[in-house]
Amino acid sequence: MSRLQNNIWFHERALDGIGRLPVSCAMNDNPAIEQIKELCAQISRTLMQIHPLVPRLNDPPTQAEVLKASSELTKQVEVIKNHLLTLQKRDDSTAL
User: How confident is the model over 68-94, as pLDDT tens digits?
Assistant: First the structure.
């Protein structure tokens, strides 16, 4: 499986439960923001589960690449969360 196929598989698995996410938000919040935040949390939890398994690969070059990719994914999830926070703050300020 290529790196691209593996990344696509990972993201598809992370999004499996999107239709079943609970949406608990205030009246002025956008439900999509809450759903995306929950998905980001799911991705983060999955990434945390990958990290302790890496040493079992017993292949230093592969271990390095997996850790590097995992780190990049974590950074990108944080980028998404920051954009959502900015959007949420903008929505909250217009509601006042």
Answer: 999 999 999 999 999 999 998 887 766
CA-nearest of 79, 80, 76 to 7 is: 76
In a domain, 2, yes or no: no
Residue ranges making up the domain that contains 52? 29-95
**pTM attached to this predicted model:** 0.64
Q: What is the DSSP letter of 29?
A: S
> In the numeric block, which tokens belong to residue 11?
């993201």
Distance of CA 49 to the CA centre of its chain: 13
Confidence class for position 23, pLDDT limits 50, 70, 90: very low
Domain membership flag for residue 20: no
Query: Domain for residue 90, yes or no?
Result: yes
Domain count, the chain: 1
In a domain, 18, yes or no: no
CA atoms within 13 A on the CB side of 85: 7
Alpha-carbon span 80 to 15, nearest angstrom:
15
